[in-house]
Structure formats: structure tokens, C-alpha cells
Amino acid sequence: MSNDFQPVSGFDLPRFAGVPTFMRLPHVPLGAPGLRDVGIGLIGIPWDSGTTNRPGPRHGPRQLRDLSTMIRAEHAVTGHRPFEAANCADLGDVGPNPADILDTLERVSAFYSEVRAAGIRPLTAGGDHLCSLPVLRALAKDGPLGMVHFDSHTDLFHSYFGGTMYTHGTPFRRAVEEELLDPKRVVQIGIRGTAYDREDRDFAEAVGIRVIPIEEVFDRGVADVMAEARDIVGTAPTYVSYDIDFVDPAYAPGTGTPEVGGPNSYQALQVVRALSGLDIVGADMVEVSPPFDTSGGTAFLAVSIMFELLCVMTGG
Amino acid sequence: MSNDFQPVSGFDLPRFAGVPTFMRLPHVPLGAPGLRDVGIGLIGIPWDSGTTNRPGPRHGPRQLRDLSTMIRAEHAVTGHRPFEAANCADLGDVGPNPADILDTLERVSAFYSEVRAAGIRPLTAGGDHLCSLPVLRALAKDGPLGMVHFDSHTDLFHSYFGGTMYTHGTPFRRAVEEELLDPKRVVQIGIRGTAYDREDRDFAEAVGIRVIPIEEVFDRGVADVMAEARDIVGTAPTYVSYDIDFVDPAYAPGTGTPEVGGPNSYQALQVVRALSGLDIVGADMVEVSPPFDTSGGTAFLAVSIMFELLCVMTGG
Amino acid sequence: MSNDFQPVSGFDLPRFAGVPTFMRLPHVPLGAPGLRDVGIGLIGIPWDSGTTNRPGPRHGPRQLRDLSTMIRAEHAVTGHRPFEAANCADLGDVGPNPADILDTLERVSAFYSEVRAAGIRPLTAGGDHLCSLPVLRALAKDGPLGMVHFDSHTDLFHSYFGGTMYTHGTPFRRAVEEELLDPKRVVQIGIRGTAYDREDRDFAEAVGIRVIPIEEVFDRGVADVMAEARDIVGTAPTYVSYDIDFVDPAYAPGTGTPEVGGPNSYQALQVVRALSGLDIVGADMVEVSPPFDTSGGTAFLAVSIMFELLCVMTGG
Amino acid sequence: MSNDFQPVSGFDLPRFAGVPTFMRLPHVPLGAPGLRDVGIGLIGIPWDSGTTNRPGPRHGPRQLRDLSTMIRAEHAVTGHRPFEAANCADLGDVGPNPADILDTLERVSAFYSEVRAAGIRPLTAGGDHLCSLPVLRALAKDGPLGMVHFDSHTDLFHSYFGGTMYTHGTPFRRAVEEELLDPKRVVQIGIRGTAYDREDRDFAEAVGIRVIPIEEVFDRGVADVMAEARDIVGTAPTYVSYDIDFVDPAYAPGTGTPEVGGPNSYQALQVVRALSGLDIVGADMVEVSPPFDTSGGTAFLAVSIMFELLCVMTGG
Amino acid sequence: MSNDFQPVSGFDLPRFAGVPTFMRLPHVPLGAPGLRDVGIGLIGIPWDSGTTNRPGPRHGPRQLRDLSTMIRAEHAVTGHRPFEAANCADLGDVGPNPADILDTLERVSAFYSEVRAAGIRPLTAGGDHLCSLPVLRALAKDGPLGMVHFDSHTDLFHSYFGGTMYTHGTPFRRAVEEELLDPKRVVQIGIRGTAYDREDRDFAEAVGIRVIPIEEVFDRGVADVMAEARDIVGTAPTYVSYDIDFVDPAYAPGTGTPEVGGPNSYQALQVVRALSGLDIVGADMVEVSPPFDTSGGTAFLAVSIMFELLCVMTGG
Amino acid sequence: MSNDFQPVSGFDLPRFAGVPTFMRLPHVPLGAPGLRDVGIGLIGIPWDSGTTNRPGPRHGPRQLRDLSTMIRAEHAVTGHRPFEAANCADLGDVGPNPADILDTLERVSAFYSEVRAAGIRPLTAGGDHLCSLPVLRALAKDGPLGMVHFDSHTDLFHSYFGGTMYTHGTPFRRAVEEELLDPKRVVQIGIRGTAYDREDRDFAEAVGIRVIPIEEVFDRGVADVMAEARDIVGTAPTYVSYDIDFVDPAYAPGTGTPEVGGPNSYQALQVVRALSGLDIVGADMVEVSPPFDTSGGTAFLAVSIMFELLCVMTGG
Asked: Which SUPFAM superfamilies does this UniProt record tie to the protein (chains A, B, C, D, E, F) (predicted)?
């Protein structure tokens, strides 16, 4: 661990001061000399062109950086100090092309391929859920990954609007088709809301994805559900994808396709703590949409969850 | 079931597009030829002149229509598809007179009498809680109805401001007096908040209305309380009245007289699902006040509950 | 003039009541029998995929419909009554594909071709400024049009992000290249804000587009500038494109790329009144972005301007 | 002048501290001994039951009190110190009956009759514009008054919704009919917005009310228009009624029926200063609607105008 | 009990009317004759100069007064009527010096010494948490007090920013050092959030303060934890300090240093009810920050909790 | 001019992407090697402890950085490109001590002394107006400076709250006393609003400061007033201090002590352009308070003005 990678403390510089980087970490762009010392890279993907409903997550990384300056260095329950356990840095944002989906898919994959080549595990701040697809394309080069997926939607649809294949409702359909994910090692937790039809769930069933609806989460409890989730992904390399609309909109109104009847913020943190010990090769926090919560409350919850993700990625 | 009554799908037309009707259903005004095919009519009553505190629910139907375009066709848990189970349509709004309470009571009753005469069961979007009174006047022509009432207030007071009889705090006192409701078949669930005095509860006790305070809901659990509620109303014709302030204001801030310490959004849905099998002759969702939640979050919760109501009204 | 096309009066039905159509006009979709009687069609294009900065105008048509219910039937200054001067109707929205720009360009052109074929002049509610391009493709079939363009930006850039040709910063570059506009009959009024470079203005100069910066508007006055504008477009067919960011953001905060130092709301109306007598074949109001002004103030200004546009399109 | 009636200074107690009364003056309810020493009474009428569109002004007095703690003791331009020129006090609110219009008209008139009997001139904070009617009923007991009326609407309509006589669109029609106002000494300034029809203006013309539309204000300038206004009302007793929607909604968004294209805040103050020297028997500031501007900006403008009114009422 | 100290009822005067005092009680400033009859004084401390992060609680007392007009006279569950059990009054605000911390500490202590000398028990509305220190200095003159402290932070740090001793993160460190609190009779409930380090918890452990983290609250349940809390403080004089950030930010967003994963509003009330029977010499509600919740929802929850505090302070 | 100091273009990276520095310039902290090449340093002072009323400007620098990513490279009217005329960089924030005014005054002066020693001219983003005092202490080491001061307040008061000398209402009183400013070369423009008394203006008159009230600005016009301002400061070294409350609150609501009746945004820019040719040794933009305008509109106006300041500081 290098001292260069310690976040600025709120005891020294108040939380509202300074150029805001993720969790007040040093900004180390791709190509910078310090990159080789980074173990975990926090990366923004300010892109929401796959959004079929209310856009806004392109503004996510900036608000998440802003609110992340409220995060401190130590996990209160476990005492884990992730910034001492690994060198963490803000790698900046992938530059998107908001008017060209295919171009941006390429840009993101290229960026993450470089990150992976540098031996850095990425913790991504989206962006809408389509962002996960090009990240997986870069990370799954050695074979399909397992995935723990928190969401109120499966994002497993085939296409929208008469055949459009790349939207925030289709990334994991594509990821399974492209063999980036091993469907038998994929678990989706918190699914709810009114449904179009059963096309997504039929696909899940056909390929072996385990879908855990919210009713099951509440009936069985977080601990039991998460034990099953750990069993499903096992000890092989696993990706964690966290759509903020997993959480009830009272706690996370700043998102484009909320669904009522979800978990509270305590449960939102608990489900991540339960991932401790998994082999997490990357994680993301997506669908935070600042125009729908200018107060920053949603973003603060999201960065609190990102801190939990960082803890389980660093042995906490 | 006629195909004419299917809602527009978000796969075809994005949810933010199109003239917003309730749940993207066809708009069938009174007098239109299609009316005879309608089984369930969604109706707005944009009226809040009975409000003793913070007005706003007159704007409710428009915001509820707007947010209802986020609702899809299928219940995720039960698989029930209400728009296939019955012909549903948006019958438009009752035209109120915002400066004359007695005139508006007449207008609403006249509208609903016509709806009832057409054999249509109404699902109403208020409006403040005084709206329920003229609706009951139209629906209870064959005798008093039972009622399941979700609220944080009993709305059973005798009068306000030195003798004013028609406010949103008095509708069910009037309805009992006018023999529109059978008090022995009325249950009020979720009552809480600081109290003026016990005049309303004394009345409830005297006539046999069962009041279940929120403490009892939390102590006994939703399932147990709702089993009692079903017993109380039995198999005879029953009305369901849902004041959005039943739900905790963190989930439903857009209302005029919130009371803290209420149920969450999951419980807000569960209590309706538990009504499955009752003989529901009509239902309403009242007190959504858009000026107090311009984000639309309260309205989205309200239309999600309306979808649940629609499901139990159509055999779901 | 048919009585069927009169808007609902606020004396009869309060402005907050009823399913909201543009200016409370009848909803006459393409294909409906009444279409042949329509002279002017108000149309929504809920699409903002061309936005390079802050998205949101896809929500414009719905908020514009909502606020348009505040508009009454008569122009207070001229006494003109546009709904009596022509049959006006709400033709609904073009169904966009938010995840495919080329597909949506086609969809919009097809819709407007049908409108034009029916002899209807369109008054469009966007959507971002890229919407104007497919509308012009449909309207300019008999030859290039003149254009009066109110905006703080020229929207004449060649491309963005390394070659992307279709964004809300490029529509009129494309329209000139495609000979939909006659650049010598194009005037752009209100241009201001910091500049990338002079590429857009060099193009304007090269092809003969007259650019009137805001300083000139304030120095010469609205009357003088608008006299010049009328001279430029002359008596031949002319399109009017009105970007709400023409107006100062204090008056119109709900837009994605505001520029300070613009006209006030009185001037915003005056410039349209000055178009009286022109041969206007169509007009649009674009870039109203509801997520950036949930109060509806921007939309209300926009519909007030649309009413002025309607007046000058109907001989007012 | 008594020292008891001096407002608390922001040099002694910060503006955000203390129980908020109008302009930090002493609270002297009707019946209190200090009442006999009061020269000008600031009074709230928290009532908006006459509102035909978006309610909210019932919350006006409280927000106006809150923001009025920002007002200091001296007029910066004239050096006039109104609180030294007359004993001013907060007389509290008239208690309305929000569910009974006729009852409330009586309550307000009774309150103001008592105020007038005590020799106190009232400066009223509404409430919607119907509030002015019962105030005039109390003040015009010795004969019809003149009136300077700032507004974007004439409020001269006969009735709404099929014959309803008491709404915020009819108070001055009633006041002329009841001979509370001398129409030949009434001037209405700033009228604008789309019009239903010409019924109100025909009435004005018939009885001799001078209506000055906003175009005339801008063309002739404030000084010229106000000179005419002073001539119209002359030296006889005059009431001043100020509807905040006189001002452009960019400056005063917190109101129920805004009309774009109005004066700015500087002009909003200037028109009042021009009333210096008139015999003002009472004044009001109405239609401030806090739910539509929770920021308090509208209320702050309104209390700044109320301070100007106080200055011209006290010889400033 | 004197009738002079009864709050105004909403049946007589609507809740939005009248000069807002705490819970619509009479305003009895220090020095007023009625002071000798007061048993419990509600006092505002509009001061937030100790805030290290986002300021705003200086505006707390005014918003709390505003929302407290929604509180009624009777506890719905227990039937307790606190305003009949003791004479309660609004004593007004302590006048702070926002630009001098030491001066303000003196001002607050002096005010509360006078309150204590008059035999009045204070219920304080802050202000940030530093407010509790000068209050304790006045109340603990006969020896150290016990304290039940609801918060997400311990506020036990030694200093900030290189040695600054008086901030809202240090009040209870000072209070223990100054022997205002008996650490063995102090319990802190709800502690959570990311941590700087363990300096505060080490101090707690060293002096014997019991810290109950939120995990323990959720695992053991409110009843069990509160039983322990009652045991810790025992029957000796006890202070209750309630930081609104104890509650989850979904319920109480209007605060400067929120921490996700907290209790809901029902639990927020339950923990206070469990204090029934203790010897409470004073209580406070701090850190409500109106600029971060202009809706008033946080303040309404806070005054609902203050009503519970009032009940347990008056034998309820 | 070095290419290293060019801002990122919105053609390459969308404006919402990337770690936000002032105007997308490189971040060059004190002590960094690149510092020696910097000509103009943009610096944040996130500090508002001198605020006597509504706090918030401590959050200013972060929001100003965020919105400044909307600024492009070229002045549209003059064609001036400031980032090519001088090496500009973001020097980061001064670290304040929010709980100790004297300590922070030292910290700011020390930071700016270092900046001055490096030959860098500062363009400051506050913070409240007390920030200007320690900046002047660092910049005026060779003798008193002239000052052009845009504001609605003089900030010339002696003290507040019984003798407190350092608040945002006193900085220029101190600066004159400390001979940092030459009062005969100081002009204050835009002064307005209700006044406490004449203590500040008497001081101005006594020492020879020219105060231009807003009435004079509107009567004489911007050009005439600014010609006088240029004459007053002459060709000697001059500081420019711009309080955002100079502008009317409709354009700049995000500030703590607004005064209505101010200039519009066009005039807000024009007054700065008129400073072209002066010898400007430093400038600031203060009192932007994000909690009072979360939309960012005020901050966008402020950074647009900062761009104008940058232009006149670099020969534009």
C-alpha cells in the first residue's frame, strides 16, 4: 500500500472542499505513470443512450463523485479500511459518444481492456445499465463470468421498438448470447414491478439464470437469499452489477424506471456485505439519474453501496 | 375481451410518448358508443374543495394519468393480466365546480349514476377524500355497502369550523348517516397520528366500525390484519377506499395531511393483494396532491396501487 | 370552421381537469376520419437522442400538453381567435425509437409526409432541435424553404465527437446541404453564448445565412430586427423554428443548453407577432426539457409562444 | 410614534431567528390593549377558496411573514423610515372557513370592520383575489373608493362554472355592482395573457374603468402610465390592490394563474413608488402561492412591494 | 393547568393560519409575566456555526414552528394530552451570534440558566448538535446528568481542522470532560456510517459510554435495546438528545450529515415512547436543516418526535 | 501559450463527462511543477462563516466547477480566446476551517501570498464576501488597490451583533481601515434594497467611496455608469469584486441575501465587458449559494460572468 492513494480526510479538508474525485482519491488517468500501482480503479461511464424511458444517468458519475466526498475511510461494522487494503484511484471517465451507441460500446470496451491489461479491477459508476455490456466484453476475455445482479428488472429482453438490440433492457441477454456470462452462475435479486410479459423470464429459465423476486427476498430474509446467491456464483470469477432501482424509490428516487415495493437502505447495504469472500473481478453501480434527484440523496446511497462493494473487493 | 381495450405497450411506443390516459387505455367519455363494452371505468375527480388543510388533490388525476403510463400489462407475482380479464377504459374526468361544494357533490353523483347504469364498475382517481361520498351515493342505491378503508385518519368527524358538514374529514360520517355504508361491514386500517380528541373514534365504536390502528398492523402483521378485514366485509358488495396518506410520507410525500410512522410501499401493495376474492363494486385512490410532490413519486406509488386494485377487481 | 374543433373553455371545465391535449383541442390521430377537416395539426415529437449535453426534451410534448390547458381562446392584443380562423387539432405524438437515430429520422419524416399529404400545416412540440430536420425533409418536397430561426445557437455545425452527423447541433447544416432550406432566405436571431470556434459562423457566411447576434437585437430593438427578418424570408413559403433557449434562462430554465443574456418573455412573444403576414408552412417549438423545470414555467412560456405562432399561422 | 412598534433589527437578532411576524413587528391581535395605538395594521387572510385554477394562496400569509423578516427599516432611495412615520403592527390572520365561501366573506368583513372602527388602515397579505371583496365591503362604508389595481387579469367577470358569483375572477365585478368602487376612479394596470372573450373588458368599458394593457405600460413607460393612474384616482380615498401575477412569472413564479410577458421586479417596485401622495385607505398583496415557489423568492418580492406600499401609506 | 396554555385547535383555526409558534402554544418570552406559570418551555436555538459540513440548521426553529402547527392535542395510542398535563409555552429563540462561537455558547447558557431558574424544563429545537453543550452547561449545575442520545454519529471527537474544539462533532466529548454528563449513564443509539477512525469509540469505551450501533438495534429490536437504555440511565436526572440524522435519510433528508441504513419513522417514534417514566430534565431535537428539505417533511417528522418527547416529559 | 493549458472541448468530451475543474482546465495545485507556467489561477474559497443570514456559499466552488464545464473557448462578440491569451489553470481550493474565522483568514491570505509570489493573478470563486478581505491582504502588499465592486450591498458596515468585526457585511470597511483599498479609487455599483440605516453610506461618503445605486444604473444606462467607473479606478492596479446578488434574484436566486429590482443577465455581462483595458490584479465572484439554487442556474450565470472577467483580465 502506498500513501499516495489515501483519500483526503474530512478532519483536514472539509468534505465540501476540493476538486471532487471518487472518494477523494487521486485522479490517475489512463496513461499516467501512477497507473501501474493501482489495484482498484473507480471509473465513470457518463452514458445513457440505451435508456428507453427517462434519461439522465449520463450525469451520474459527476454527482456520484460529488457525494462520494462524504465517504470516510473505515467500515464502521467490520473495521475494514479498503484504501489501506488496496491502492485505489479515480481513473476518470470513459469519453462517450452520446449520439452513437455502437461507437460508445467500442469506446467503453477499449477503455476497460486497457484497465484489465494493467491488472486493475474496475468499480464502475454508470451510466445506464447498457454500460455493463461493454465492461463485460472487456473483463470476460478468459471465459464467461458469474454475476450477482441486484435490480428490479431482469434486463434480459431480446429487443425493443421493433428490433433494437442495444438498450438498457437487453444487456444481459446479449451478455449470455456472447458467452460473457455463464447463465448457470448468474443470480438476479429483487425483481419486481408490473411486467410486459414473460419473455425475459422464459429466457432466464431456459438458460438457467436464477431469478429471485422481491417477495422471496422479504419472505426468506436477506441472509438466506444471499447464502443461495453465494452458492450460485461459487468461487470462480464473478461480476457484481448493482442497479440502484433495486432499492425502493423512497430511498432512491433518482432513477429512470423505479419500481415500488423494494428493499430499504439497510438491506441495500446488507446484500453487498454478504458477498464477502467472493472472487469479484469487477462491479458496477448504474442507473443513478441526477436530474430526478438533485438533492443527491440517491447518489449518496449509491456511493455508500459503492464503499461496501469496495470493501468486499478488498477482502473486507 | 375486445382488443380495442388493450393498453399501448412500452415496447411499441415509449412510455413518455402519447396523450396520457389512465394506464394508456382508450379514452371513452360518457356518451361515446364504446361505453357499452366497458367493464371497468377509470375516472378522475379533480376536486379538493373539501380540504381543510393543504389543497392540491384537484391536480391528482392529471399527474396520475401521466405516471400511469409507466404501468405494464401483467402482475409480476400472480401473472394476472387485468386488461385481458375485463374491458378497461379511461372515462375522463368529472367536471367539478371548485367554488361550490354542493353543486360538485351533485355533479359527481350524477356522473357515477350514469356509470353504474351502464354496468361499469368505477376505479376513481381523486381528488380529496370528500370525493368518496358522492361516489357512494351513486353506488349504494341498492343498499348499504361494506368498505375496506386504508387511511391514517378515520374521516368520521361530525363537522369543522363551527358546523361545516362537508369536508374531507367527514365523508364517512355522512355515508353512515345516509346509510350508504353498513358500519358493521366497515374496517379502517392504518389509523395514526396525533388526535384532536376521540369524537371520531367514539362514533366508530358506537356504530360498530372496526378501527385498526397502525400499531396493530405492525404488531400482528399484514396477513393477519387483512384476514380480519376480509371477514368483516364478507362476501357482500364492498367498496375499497384508499387514501394515499395511509402510506408513510417518506414513500408518499405528495399529500396534504401526512402522518409519520406508516407502512412502506411493499406493505402498501400487500394489503390490496389480500383483497382478492371480495365482491368489489368500486374503489378509489384519493388525496394524491401533486404540488407537494412534483417528482411524481407519490403518483407512481398510487398508480401501482391502482394496478393492484384493478387486479383484485378483475379476479386477479 | 367546424364547432368540433373548439377548445374546452375554462369557464366550463376547470383548466386542471380533463385528459390533456394540446390547447384542449380534440385528439385526431392519423387515420381518424376527422383528419380531413383539420387545417393545423399540433404534433408532439418526444425525442432527444440528438442531444449532446443534458437530455430531457423527449418529455417535452407531455408537459407542453399539460401546461397548454392554461391557454384561452383569444389573443388579448389583436382580438384574433385562432381556433375560429382554422380547424386545429392535436394529432398526437410521433412514436420515436429512442435508441436509434436513423430509424427515428425516418419515422418522423413518414409521419409528416402524411400530414402534409392531408393538407395540414404542422405546429410541432419537440423534442430537441434535431426534430426539425425530418420535419423539413417532409415539408420541403417542392423546394427549399425560407426559415426564421430563434435560438441562442446556430445549430450549423458539421459534426460532433469525431464525425457524428446527426445531433441537435447540426440540423440546419444538414438541411442546407440537403437543399431543404434556401440559405439566402434563412435568418437566425438571438445567437449568443461562449463559442467553440467560428466553424458554424463561417459556414453561415459562406452560404448566405444571416446571423443576428443578441447584441444586435438589444441595440436595434425587436421591431427593427424583425423587419429585416421579414425582408429576408419574403413572401415565399417559410418555416419558423423556435428553440426555447432563445429566451433568457431566468424565463426558460427548462432546457439543456441555456445561454445567459437573452431576451425576456415579452420580447419572446413580440418577435413572433412580428411574423404576421408571412407564408408559414410549419413551425416548431423545441428543446423544452421538463426535468430541468418541473414547475412547468418554461413549458407555459413555450405554449404561450405556440399560441402566438398559431395566431400568425391563421392570419392573426 | 412609540418605540414599542419598532421592528427587531438584523444587527441585534439575525433575520432567521425569532417567531416570524410581518416585518418583525409586534403581534397585536384584535382585542389587545395596544390596538388603540396602531396606525397601520398588517393582516393575513389565509384563504383561497375562490381560486378557479391552482390553489395555494391560503399558505401566503405564513410565507410572507417568514420572508418579511428580511426587510429592514429604511427605504434606500427616499430615506423614508415607515416604522417611525406610523405605528405599525401585525394584527394576525383572519380565521377563514376553507369549506364555506359565504361564511368566510362574512368573517373577513367583520374583522376589517373592527379594524376600520379602531382607526387602523390595513395592509393585507392574501389569500387569493376574492379576499379584496370583503375588505372593500368593510372599508367602503362611507362611499365608493377609487382603486389602483396591478394585475394581469381584470377580475371583472360575471361568473364561472354556470353561475358561480364569488371566485377570484369576479371580485371587482361584485365591488362595482355593490358600489364599493367608483368605476370612474378605477384603473387596472398590466392586463395581459390570452383571453376567454371580451365580456370583462366590455363591462369595464361600459362602467368607465380604465384598463391599461401591458403593451401600453411598456410603450409609454412606467412614469407616464402612473401619472395617468394618479389622475384617475385623484385625491379622494383610494384602495390599492396588487396581484403578484402583475409581475412576470420569471420574477414571481409562485402564483396560480401566471401570464408571461410582464414587468420585471424593478418596475414592480417603481409603480408603487409612483403612488406617493395619494390618500390610501388600504392596500393588499394577493395571490402569492407558496406551493408553487417553495424557495420564497416570490414571497420576498411580494414583501419588498409591501414595504413600498407601507412607505407610500405613511407619507414616504 | 391553566387554559391559557392550550394550543389553538385546527377545528377552530385552520392549521395554515396564524402566527406560527411551537405547536400553536402561546409565545411567552423570558421576562414576560406568564413565565412563572410555565412548566415546559419550547425553545429555538437557530445556530449552526459548529457545522463542519453542510450548514442550515440555523433555519431549523422557524421551519419546525411552521410544521408544528400540524400537531394536534392528543396522543393517539396512549390518549395522553400533554398540554393538559403541564403548562407548555413557546419561549422564543435564543439570539445567536452566527459569527462568534464562544459568544454564542455564552448566550445560550445564559438563556437556559434563566429558564432553569424559573423552574422550566426545556424542549429545544436546534440548531446543530453543538447547541446541546451550552444547554447541558446550564442544566447540569447540580451534577452530571445521564443521557439517552439518538444519532448516527457519536459526536465524541476531540477536535477538527487541527485543534478546533467546538464543533457539532465534539459536544459530548466536551460535556464529559466538563463533567456535565456522567459517561456511565450515557447511551448512544443508532450509530452507523463510514468512520474516520476509532478515536471517538475508543474514548467512549475508556469512559464507559455505551454505544449501540444500528446493527444491534435491528438485530435485537427496539424494545430490547430501549430496555437496556432505560437501565443505563436509571431513575436519576436524564437528558435526551435526538439528532434527526438518527433516522434514515429517506425519512429525514433535511439534515447536513446523513447516513443511510437507519431506522424508519415508526421506529423513530417508538424509541421515544420507550422513555416513559424516566426523569427527563430536558430534551432537544437537532440538525434539522431546512435548505436540504424545503418540503418540510423532515421537520414534520421532527415535530412529531418532539410531541412524543413532550408526552414522556409530562408523564405520558 | 502552452498547449497544456487548453480546456477540454465539448466536441471531444461531452460537457457532462470528466472530473470537473474550473472551465475544464488542468488542475495545478500549489507546489506542482506546472505552477510556474500559470498566468491566471482560478481558485475556490469554500467558506461562508462570515455569513450573517442564510449560509451556503461554502458549497459554491464545487457547483461553479460543475457548471463551468458548459463554458467554451471563445468570446462570441469579441472573438477573444482567453485560454490562448494566457495560461490558465485550476489551482484548487483553499482549505478553510469552517469553525474558526481568524484561522481561516490566515489560511486564505497565506495561500494567496503564495499565488502572488508565483506571479499568478487570481480569479476567485467564493465563498461569501468576507473571502475578499484576506485576498486583498495578500494582493495589496505594494499599496492600496482600486476596486470596481458589483453588489446590492456596500459591505461597509462597522460590525454586527454587538461588535463582531469580521462578517460578510464588513470586508471593505476593514479593507479601507487596513489601507488595502484606496477609497478614492473604489466604486460600488448596483446598491439597493431596504437599508438598516445610513452608517455604511456615511462612511463611504466620509472616505470618498463612490456609491452608485441601482436607480442611477437604470437611469443613466450601463455604458455611462461604467465610463465613470473606469475613470474612478484609472490605470493603476485594480481589483474587481463581483457579488452575484448584484444581479436580480430572478436571474440569480442562489444567494443568501438577495435584493429585488436588480439588473438582468445581459447587463450583468455588459458591466464586465466595460472593464476592458483596466489593470486588473485579481477578481472574485462571491456569494453563490448552491443550496438555494440546486438547478445550477445561478452558478451558470456566475461562471458566464467569470468567463467575461477572464477575458478582460487577458486583454479581451
From this structure: Arginase/deacetylase (SSF52768)
